[in-house]
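Handoff note, outgoing to incoming analyst
You'll be picking up this chain. Sequence as last confirmed:
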Amino acid sequence: MSELTSVKLVLLGDSGVGKTSIVTHYVSGNAANNVKPTIGAAFVTKEINVDGNQLELLIWDTAGQEVYRGLAPMYYRSALIAIIVFDVTRSQSYESVSYWIKELKTNVDTNIIILVCGNKTDLEDQRTVDTSSAQAMADQEGALYAETSATTGSGIERMFQMAVSKLLTTRKTNTDNNQQKGVNIKDSQSTKQGGGCC
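Most recent structure output, in case you need it:
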């Protein structure tokens, strides 16, 4: 059994898109009831095994209200994975995705894994953002794309698995490249100090 490695993951997006409900469903396996708006950020952990790697996800669920946007960098700056959630029935929440991608690309390490998530697929008859447009936008930004329903739980497990698998693959590729060029001591030291990842 490999030792447990911590992976910091942050959820971003407008208020009411279902970030808290997604996290609740993922961690507990049940739909969330009476979800109140997140103030600042909420924090949970979940242990998972992906591709034989034992990991502890440190999940930060950030508040979506405009008033809390200034706090977001505190939570996403050291994250290895960022999931940007929008509501497929609200075009305005989809338009905010580009704001968050720009924020991340400006303020964080270029190696961060970005995944765009279209939530509330159970409301298909009210959908205003089609899958192909959202997928094309994510591809253009170099991000992953997934769709979920926090009400039914559809796609949630797969989405987190997808993001973590991509992180592991990216890390392995970077490590292999560094070994070919000669070990990058600075990278290995900072990994040790930071609790290590993958």
